[in-house]
Amino acid sequence: MQWRPGRPEQRATRVVFFITGFGYSAWAALVPFAKAHTGVSEGGLGLLLLCLGLGSIVTMPLSGALTARFGCRAVMLVAALVVAATLPMLSLLASLPLLVMALILFGAGLGAMDVAMNIQAIIVERASGRAMMSGFHGLFSLGGIAGAGGMAALLSAGATPPQASLCVSLGILLALALAAAKLLPFGSPADGPAFAIPHGIVLLIGALCFVLFLAEGAVLDWSGVFLTNVRHVPTSYAGLGYAAFATTMTVGRLAGDRIVERLEPRRVVMLGSLLAAAGFVIASWIPSWEMALLGYGLVGAGCANIVPVLFSAVGRQSAMPEKLAVPAITSLGYAGMLAGPAGIGFVAHWTSLPAAFAILAALLIAVSLSARAL
Question: What global pTM score does this model have?
Answer without folding.
Answer: 0.86
